[in-house]
Design a protein that fits this description.
The chain is α/β, with parallel strands linked by helices. The chain is built from 10 helices and 9 strands. It has 2 domains: 153 residues, P-loop containing nucleotide triphosphate hydrolases (Rossmann fold, 3-Layer(aba) Sandwich); 118 residues, no CATH class.
C-alpha cells in the first residue's frame, strides 16, 4: 500500500495536491488530527488491499496538535509501516498575495498581521519541513508544472496519457450542442444517409450506414485529419492536468453521420490504449 502524508504552509497549494492524488486513485483524508494516524493506518493496512493508495493532509488547521505529527509518524516507523511525507511550501510574499486575493482567514492569529501569522507558522513547521521526504515550492509554478512534479513523486512509472478518459458524443445540431464538450466537430457537410430510403430508418451502428458514410473521399479525408488532431491533443490535455476529455461530433439529427464517425474514432482510440465511452445522445430522437 502506498501511504503519503501531505503537509505544509497554509495557502501553499495543498488543495491542488489533494485533487491530483484523488484523480490518480488515492483515498484522501483532509485535516486529520495527528493522534488518529496510528490507529487509522492499522485499519487501512488490515483491509487486505481494499485501500491501495492513501493520502492524509495535516496542517495548521489542527492547531497545537500539529506538534504531535512527528511523534505519531515515528510510531508508524516503529511498527514497520512505510510512508512518505510531502511538504508544500511557498514564499512569504506569494502567500500574502494569495491570502489577499482569496480573502481567507489564516489559521494562526498573530499580532504581526497576516505576514506575522505566515512567519509564525513557518517557524512552527520547521521541524516537520526538515523531516519531509519531498518539498515542493509552488511560488512560481503553474498547475501543470505542479502536476509534473507530483507525477515524478507519486506515479513512479505509472504516468501514461492513455489513462485519460475519452467520452465521445455523437449528437444532432437540431437538438443543441453538448454543454460539456471540449472539442466539437461538425460533419453536416458530408453525404447524408437520411435521403437514401433503405438507410433512413437505420443509424450509424448499422454496417450499411457506415459503408455509405465512409465511401465518400471527403469523409475519409476528414476522419483522418480528425483522428490525427485528437491523437495529438489528448497527451497535451493530460499534461495540463485533465483526467477526461469530451469530444462531440455533430450531424443534423445525431443518428447517421455523427454516430458512424464517433464509432470509428472510438475504435481507433481504444486500439491506442485509451479508455473510451460513446454516448449516443440523440440517436433515438430524430429521423434526420
Amino acid at each position: 500500500m502506498k501511504f503519503t502524508v501531505v503537509t505544509g504552509l497554509s495557502g501553499s497549494g495543498k488543495t491542488q495536491v489533494l485533487k491530483f492524488l484523488e484523480d490518480h486513485g488515492y483515498f484522501c483524508i483532509d485535516n486529520l488530527p495527528p493522534v488518529l494516524i496510528p490507529k487509522l493506518t492499522e485499519l487501512f493496512f488490515s483491509t487486505n488491499g481494499k485501500f491501495e493508495k492513501i493520502a492524509i493532509v495535516i496542517d495548521m488547521r489542527v492547531g497545537e496538535m500539529i506538534n504531535e505529527l512527528l511523534d505519531n509518524l515515528n510510531s508508524l516507523k516503529e511498527k514497520g509501516y512505510n510512508y512518505t511525507m510531502l511538504f508544500v511550501n511557498a514564499n512569504d510574499d506569494v502567500l500574502v498575495k494569495r491570502y489577499k486575493e482569496t480573502r481567507h482567514a489564516h489559521p494562526i492569529e498573530s499580532d504581526g498581521g497576516l505576514l506575522g501569522s505566515i512567519r509564525l507558522e513557518r517557524k512552527m513547521l520547521e521541524k516537520i519541513y526538515n523531516e519531509a521526504d519531498y518539498v515542493i515550492n509552488t511560488s512560481a509554478l503553474t498547475i501543470a508544472q505542479l502536476h509534473e512534479k507530483l507525477k515524478n513523486i507519486y506515479l513512479d512509472g505509472e504516468d501514461d496519457e492513455s489513462k485519460i478518459k475519452v467520452d465521445i458524443i455523437p449528437f444532432g445540431f437540431k437538438y443543441g450542442l453538448p454543454l460539456d464538450a471540449d472539442l466539437v466537430f461538425d460533419v453536416r457537410c458530408f453525404p447524408n444517409p437520411f435521403y437514401v430510403p433503405e438507410l433512413k430508418e437505420k443509424n450509424g451502428n448499422d454496417k450499411e450506414v457506415q459503408e455509405f458514410v465512409m465511401k465518400s473521399p471527403q469523409t475519409q479525408k476528414f476522419y483522418k485529419q480528425m483522428y490525427e488532431m485528437v491523437f495529438d491533443l489528448l497527451p497535451l490535455y493530460y499534461t495540463e492536468g485533465k483526467q477526461s476529455v469530451t469530444i462531440a461530433i455533430g450531424c443534423t439529427g445525431g443518428k447517421h453521420r455523427s454516430v458512424t464517425l464517433a464509432n470509428k474514432l472510438g475504435e481507433a482510440l481504444i486500439k491506442d490504449g485509451y479508455i473510451v465511452s460513446i454516448i449516443y445522445r440523440d440517436i433515438e430522437k430524430g429521423k434526420k
